[in-house]
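Letters spell out the chain; the tokens describe the backbone. To illustrate:

===
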Amino acid sequence: MKLDPRTFLASLPGPATPKWPEGERFVEAFSRAGLSLELYAPVGHDPQQPHAQDELYFIVSGTGVLSIGDARHDFAPGDAFFVPADMPHRFETFSEGFSAWAVFWGPLTSR
């Protein structure tokens, strides 16, 4: 199975929500046996909160800074990051056209 980020970017923005008044900036690309893959492409700012599962990010396009807990990391296409469940994290700055694959897996925490 091939999952092309361009296919999923074409479906963004998604529905408007209170958190995403201009439309959701993520789309699920694949889900199976407790693992899910989303394409994440925020515009302007990143409103996400900690997640209840472990997460991997694979940067598809763009550059910027990702904070994970108290650490800040520069990123560029091809970089990968691990974020444990319940850890505060956010893409603090990012260029226009930024996108990343986000992989969630493992048991849900009880937060």
